[in-house]
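We close this part of the discussion by returning to an individual protein. Part of our work consisted of pairing the sequence of a single chain with a tokenised description of its backbone. No coordinates are needed to read the tokens, only the vocabulary itself. The amino acid sequence and the backbone structure tokens for this protein are reproduced below:
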Amino acid sequence: MGRENNSPNSPTSTKKGAFSTLKSLGLLSCLRLGSSSKNVVAGTLTSNGTKLTAAKGVVRTEEEKSRHGVVKKEQAWMRNGNLDMAIWSALPEELLDHILAYLPLPALSRLGTVCKRWQSLLHCPLFLQTRAAETGSSSSWPSYGPVRYNVKMSEHGEFHWSGYCKSSNRWQKLPPLSLPCLAGKKVWSGAGGLLCFYNRDNMGRLIVCNPVTKKWRELPPMNHKWRWPCVTHMIVDQSTKAYKIIMAGNEAYPRNSSTYQSHGTEVYDSVLDSWQLSGSLPKDLFLDTQDAALHKGLLYCTAQRTCTQTSDALSAHDALIAYDVQSGVWTEVASQLPDSSAYQTPLLCGGQMVMVVAPLDNDGAEGRFYVLDMTTKNWNLLTIMPKSLHKKLGFWGVCVAHGNQIFVVADTSMLVVVYDMGDGTWRELSSHQADSTFHFITPTIFSPDVNAIP
């Protein structure tokens, strides 16, 4: 009879080492099998093996067994209270891939250190099919936003970043990206599982990347060389996975020209794989922020009106403008903003257009939030940040909206406070000092999607 090969490089040895690594990382608590595999094992395993949900019910813990008079009997897949590596390492690779597909996204980078096969897991067809089937369900990966990152690559050539996870209310380091093309690039926008990178310093091209599958592409040259693209916004069609990138700003240089043109707008269409020039801003308005909010095909932004001379001084008023993605036309929505003297961020929250007025400094007035009445075009005060949170927050970093909630993130401490439009309450959520190494923050929300195509 043949003898099992237990050399360090054998498949059996690799599997045993892999499961040992899983257990040491505490990842076995995340494993569960799909309904199609119930004839083998189904349910949730804890790292110490004391409890699991089997296909036909719950196996009680030792304390529960004692209370209910159940005779202690070790399960077939256990040995001395621990997982039996001899059994678990014999799982078919197809079943193992199916199990690993349910791990949380931050754990995937650690899996890649186990073996080369697990490193290529994200390209496995069964893994992609399993994750695709889970899209939109309660077990799908959560969204992360805002995003913090470093422009400078690590000594190993990796792009390091983290995101705020709403479901767990904490910052999480996301799997690093080993893509040399990202060196010096900044996260400029993102949507539908994709991130858009741009190097403003050398007017370089845009890079679009799926951080989960690690696939990326460099977009073709734009029609303009942008000196300051005030708005870069990505829109993804979830049904077709096609996407558009809207680039707009106040100063753009046509190719092979040194004379800039103001109020430029151009749009990249992934279906056509080209940039198209689009409508210009009204001549008396200039974009003054990169923040934008998309609602029913309209991209809302703030703009500054050209200063006008009065009898005593110059006066200027900010305005809310919108870009129609379908027609490519800019229009003025509201001729005034709540407070033209402060930094203002448009957000779509709870189906309403909200303007966030950030405080000028920590000693000034608290942040204020207004809702736009689409009929009268008037701004109505929604809420004022409590003084206690205002003092703790310090200088604001970014504001993002998730559903009915508005998240405000501190620039340095990364303290996060949230306002819930549903019940009108404020809460302090999280601060993670370990993430202070990430020097750049963007309001981009990253929603992992294995089917997103750069």
Q: What stands out?
A: The radius of gyration is 26 Å. The first strand starts at residue 52 and ends at 54. The chain is about 15% helix and 35% strand.
